[in-house]
Amino acid sequence: GGLDFSVPIKEYFMDPVTGQGNIDTLVNLTGFSLVGGPASQDAKAAKDVLMRLNRPYLVSVPLVFQSFTEWQESELGLHPVQVALQVALPEIDGAIEPLIYAGRDGTSGRSIPMQDRINALATRALNWSKLRKK
């Protein structure tokens, strides 16, 4: 689907007969909005597919514009460009609880998963699933 993630959501996460979501929680780790990516976001299309899916939609992103250390030491927190592209746009789609799951190494530039953050994301996803079922 390119940068239109609504297509695989419909194909893989919705029951073909009932049209209902067949997952408990949707977690987006791409760093992009649900439909269109950062350059051509389509919040209306994202809203439509999320309303049909009717499941909690969490977004988790890797640090892109700053290293893990820069992020920790920054008085501003997350770089403003990353906030706009990878937090605000997905929230316009309907995402909840954005969370950093990986940090960029200051020397090599490699993305390094942060296990404590991944555990926190898994816990949040599980808690939203339980809440949805209640």
Automatic annotation (TrEMBL):
CobN/magnesium chelatase domain residues: 4-134
Transmembrane segments: none
Pfam families named among the record's database cross-references: CobN-Mg_chel (PF02514)
InterPro entries, sorted: CobN/Mg_chltase
The protein's name in its UniProt record: CobN/magnesium chelatase domain-containing protein
